[in-house]
Design brief:
about 375 residues, about 0% strand
Length: about 375
């Protein structure tokens, strides 16, 4: 989801004023979501049944740090798909489900796997022909492995991403009717494939993550979305991507109210022991990291020492990623922690556009952090 920048550019008036401004003003615009809808009993029953009999505990963090980035790993997976090496893809996915491996910064390998199979790459964004070419490859994979859960989840993720390709990232009132129609059709197709996958023997933690994407796109009611999250965490407690999707659902731009994310993060801290609790706390608030009023307002209410602790723990156990460095550079700057902001900026190899909105903003705040 693309977050909206300020209606009027703040420039870099004193950074000291950012938090106060964020706490005292409202967002210029919000992403208008469709009206929440009730889910058929069959969908909720599939959610409850998917993890039945599956035993999984919150595993201790591995002391061996990952050595691959999500970008490089996903690119490797995508190359295997282009080569139509379906047997190797199935082998890797199965290995990821068993070993629960991570990538630099903590991203689960199984998530990186589907990032490689669920959307095409392309300079400046994939074209419609790129999407159709990928769909043909996925269909060929499904024909070669008709009982594969992995290819079905890849197809479901493809249709979710393809839906957003049709809709675009603008506000709801900028989306044309034919765009909405394609968006809804493709989301419905993704959900149908997920329900098919639920009947197969092989179970995958990414199934719940995809269903969370469907819940947000379709506008489920809060109770259904929460039950989905609870079932997901029961299936795989350490899969932090569930927490990110739940926090995005709770954004005021979607279906939440001010304070919902804070309450969700606090609940997580109480429920999950360290070091996982603080890491999840960081990841929950990372969904709000954006040079925008909504992002700074939410971060202004966060427990900053816990954010610091979560960032440090992620780096300790999973290594420092460029994305997390961007996120914490923003967090530390909003909280006027110049020494840690400076350290985080030093670890940024590339500016993240979604966080900073413009290169000018990034450079001005980095200059503030590096100033004597």
């Amino acid at each position: 989801m693309s977050k909206q920048p300020f209606c009027k550019s703040l420039g870099f008036i004193a950074l000291l004023g950012l938090v106060a401004l964020a706490l005292s003003t409202s967002s210029c615009a919000q992403t208008e979501a469709s009206r929440p809808n009730d889910q058929p009993d069959a969908v909720m029953q599939a959610i409850r049944d998917y993890g039945r009999g599956h035993q999984s505990l919150l595993s201790q963090a591995d002391t061996t740090k990952p050595d691959q980035t999500n970008i490089s790993y996903s690119a490797h997976i995508r190359s295997l798909l282009l080569q139509e090496d379906f047997a190797q893809l199935e082998k890797i996915a199965q290995q990821n489900r068993v070993e629960k491996g991570r990538l630099i910064g903590g991203v689960w390998k199984i998530k990186g796997f589907y990032d490689g199979t669920g959307a095409p790459s392309g300079e400046g964004g994939p074209s419609d022909s790129d999407w159709k070419k990928l769909l043909a490859q996925l269909q060929k994979w499904q024909a070669a492995a008709p009982d594969s859960a992995t290819v079905r989840l890849s197809l479901a993720y493809f249709y979710v991403n393809y839906a957003w390709s049709a809709r675009g990232t603008g506000l709801a009132n900028t989306v044309e009717e034919d765009q909405w129609n394609l968006f809804n059709e493709r989301n419905a197709r993704a959900k149908s494939i997920l329900l098919e996958a639920a009947t197969l023997k092989e179970k995958d933690p990414f199934w719940y993550d995809l269903m969370q994407l469907i819940a947000r796109n379709e506008g489920w009611d809060k109770a259904a979305a929460r039950e989905l999250f609870d079932q997901a965490v029961a299936f795989e407690p350490g899969f932090y991507h569930y927490y990110i999707e739940q926090s995005r659902f709770l954004l005021p731009q979607w279906y939440g109210e001010p304070g919902d994310i804070q309450a969700f993060a606090d609940e997580t801290l109480r429920r999950v022991p360290e070091p996982d609790g603080s890491m999840l706390y960081f990841w929950i608030f990372s969904s709000e990291v954006c040079y925008c009023q909504e992002g700074m307002r939410t971060l202004g209410h966060a427990d900053y020492p816990k954010l610091r602790q979560g960032y440090a723990n992620i780096n300790k156990y999973y290594g420092l990623s460029n994305l997390n460095a961007n996120r914490f550079a923003f967090m530390a700057s909003v909280r006027l922690d110049k020494p840690l902001a400076q350290q985080a900026f030093a670890s940024v190899s590339k500016m993240d556009d979604d966080i900073w909105q413009s290169e000018q903003t990034f450079e001005e705040i980095r200059a503030w952090a590096n100033a004597p």
